[in-house]
Amino acid sequence: MTVMTDPQQITRIDALEKVIRSRRSCRSFAGQVPDEVLQKIVESAIYAPFAAGAGISLKEGRRIFIFRQGTEAMDQARQIIEAQLRSGASRIGMAVRFLPFLRKKMGFFADRISTTATQGIPGLTEGAFYIVAAEKKGFPPLASQTLAHVMENMWLTATAHGVGIQILSVTNGLTQHKGFMQLLNLPPGQWALNGCVVGMPKHPPNNKRKRDTEYFIHWVGENKKNNQ
Ligand SMILES: Cc1cc2nc3c(=O)[nH]c(=O)nc-3n(C[C@H](O)[C@H](O)[C@H](O)COP(=O)(O)O)c2cc1C
Predict the structure, then answer these.
(1) CB distance 50 to 146 below 8 Å
(2) CB–CB of 24/161 below 8 Å?
(3) What is the tens place of the pLDDT at every residue in 139-192?
(4) What is the Cα–Cα distance from 62 to 56, expressed in whole angstroms?
């Protein structure tokens, strides 16, 4: 095996490792993100892999939508998301109340969504942009999986630019929502969605966390130290 010693390559590897390790969720925003930086973030989404084997081309199957804070479209999106959170919290609250066997599995999430529905998502008013990524559903059903790659590309690019991202999973559940899909000019039900707030972090992110990587990694069939 050859190990790269080219100084340029080492710098790139170090930079990539730094970006990956310092990526954090941001939930409090202030200030503007320059349009050129936003452009780089959304362009990185187009370079994320797509499930070519499902027979849908990248051009046919991927869309990225930008909502700018302060616009009417953004207000509409926020209202739809808040209503979605309230109805989700109410349905899950009922389920865990009346079906006790679900409490163990869903109790934590039920409490979380109930708090979010009551308090709202600050990022939706503080963040400079709300970005929605859409991937056309096909067979095999890989669109949601693909969207994870799309979001990660944007997240890492934003991190490299010092910009914060908050994933908004509530977006995933809006694929059938007529009003929301109308904002995107897409037919309901045919596209998987994911979304995130993009903005300048109000507080400096805590990048100093350490992960006990050995705990997670297992070499199969080799007698290595961490193979417990
Ligand atoms: C599939 C997925 C969905 C997520 N949904 C949300 C969300 O709806 N709202 C949110 O604030 N964070 C969301 N997150 C972010 C996680 O809570 C976060 O990544 C985790 O707490 C670890 O923190 P870190 O991102 O700072 O490393 C989501 C993350 C993943 C992978």
Answers:
(1) yes
(2) no
(3) 999 999 999 999 999 999 999 999 999 999 999 999 999 999 999 999 999 999
(4) 9
What the chain holds in terms of domains, given with CATH numbers, is 25-70+122-203 (3.40.109.10)
Q: Is the beta carbon of 106 within 6 A of some atom in ligand 1?
A: no
Query: Residue for token digits 């509409």?
Result: 76
The pLDDT tens digits of the residues spanning 98-154 come to 888 888 889 899 999 999 999 999 999 999 999 999 999 999 999 999 999 999 999
The token pair that represents 26 in the structure block: 């941001």
In testing the pocket of ligand 1, which one of 113, 131, 159, 169 has its CB within 8 Å of the most ligand atoms?
169
The predicted model scores a pTM of 0.94
| Residue owning tokens 């990248």 | 58
Helix 7-22 vs helix 143-160: angle between axes, to the nearest 10 degrees? 110
